[in-house]
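User: Quick one: structure for sequence A, then sequence B.

Assistant: Sequence A:
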Amino acid sequence: MKLNEAVSKRLSELLDERNMTQYQLYMKSGVPKSTIGNIINCSYDSVKLRIIHEMCQGLGIGIDTFFASPLFKEDNLEP
């Protein structure tokens, strides 16, 4: 799996766990709703760490929690 796909899946998981919509995340994080949608839809080849950090703040988690997922294990990611 590509890194942007892993980020997309992880963000979707976290939103589902919190029963949160993309709009609610936008309101809490300040990350534009269109950007959140583009991340979910894998429209970007890469996502800036700053954006992930801002979304984490909106989700109420640390960036370490975001990446603490089997999705980001090296064996699961394409080079």
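Sequence B:
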Amino acid sequence: MDGTFNENDLSRIVEADRAHIWHHLIQHKPFETNDPRIIVEGKGMRVWDQKGKEHLDAVSGGVWTVNVGYGRESICKAVYDQLMKLCYFAQSAGSIPGSIFAKKLISKMPGMSRVYYTNSGSEANEKAFKMVRQIAHKRYGGRKTKILYRDRDYHGSTLAAMSAGGQDERNMQYGPFAPDFVRVPHCMEYRKHELDGAPDANFGEWAADQIEAVILREGPDTVGALCLEPVTAGGGVIEAPEGYWQRVQEICTKYDILLHIDEVVCGVGRTGTEWFGYQHYGIRPDFVTMAKGVASGYAAIACMVTTEEVFAMFKDDADDPMNYFRDISTFGGCTAGPAAAIENLRIIENENLLANCTGMGARLDANLRALMDKHKVIGDVRGKGLFQGAELVLDRDSKEPVPEKQAQAVVADCMAQGVIIGVTNRSVPGRNNTLCFSPALIASPDDIDQITDAVDGALGRVFG
């Protein structure tokens, strides 16, 4: 027996999975007695498992990725046609889809100029980190190597990306980490009482001023970049308060610090109205990284986008053999990614999905706030576009979080109802209590209502 079997033999598929697959983010001990879940098919907003059960996917593939929904034949055809013509060539040379997508992408990002292709969000962030370090050596005598990152933000799963990770449970047992990554406080207004000295008024400006305090403590001549999510994702779906981003921009300009915005989750329409989260706030980043929604999961692609000013630093002395970005990403040369991304952008534009994201995001927000009126366990609702969170607390006055197991029980109850939602988990100690919603940008009013109806029933059963 060579171990081969038909894809329709689902019992053997399950056994092969149990015996050979190491799943992401899951403890495998339960699989000794229970079957792992196999997702067999997806269409639009819905997926089916190996038992034939249908689920409405309210998290776009589990990790905020399938933005235009499942079963997009035109994307699949674009990828097929491109792979038949040219599947791959190292990114030291160009490709037709790479050039076309870069031009289209930059047209959505005024002030940005250059696209560096890679294959994951973690890797895209590492490219920016490496550029910051190389600039420090080229321009500042090796001094401005420190990279600031924010408490509760997440930038990837490699060791360098984890060094910039503000979620301590994700980092636990993986140290020691790379040096010269320095944390700044979070900007979560709902939990400002946990920050020493936080004021009742003008909290956004105060939270940004805490970044300046860290810069002054470390020494402005040692800090090269500040890396932030426009809306904190896995750390609790946190949008910065009014006044925060304007002050952040002022601080970066004042101390000659490069601003790196991690759009791996928020990018390409997730927040509605604008193509990227940072564009809601009028800031001017030096680096923008993106991945998940770039091709909606139809092919692996990530981008590190930067300005012409940053790009010029790596070619200003052509006689110096070390004066270029000496880096490669093998699968940054795969042409399937940009081919899929071109068609993904066309779908978003032609189907007016930014507007749909805005409208359906408003409906999701209103539905969640109605549930907040009904269920005292919801302490806060927040987010932007089709990227929303509902924080669960035992008491609204003290804001004591519900135990993680209870938040997980809500997710499990929704799953039993045929609706897949997310939750912060094993990320921030004692703060894994936010339900997360990121349905595809194609969501309809009925989809949104089905999601929140499932949450309503789950909250009633879990909390009484």
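Residues 22 and 124 are 24 Å apart (CA to CA). The radius of gyration is 22 Å.

User: Thanks, that's what I needed.
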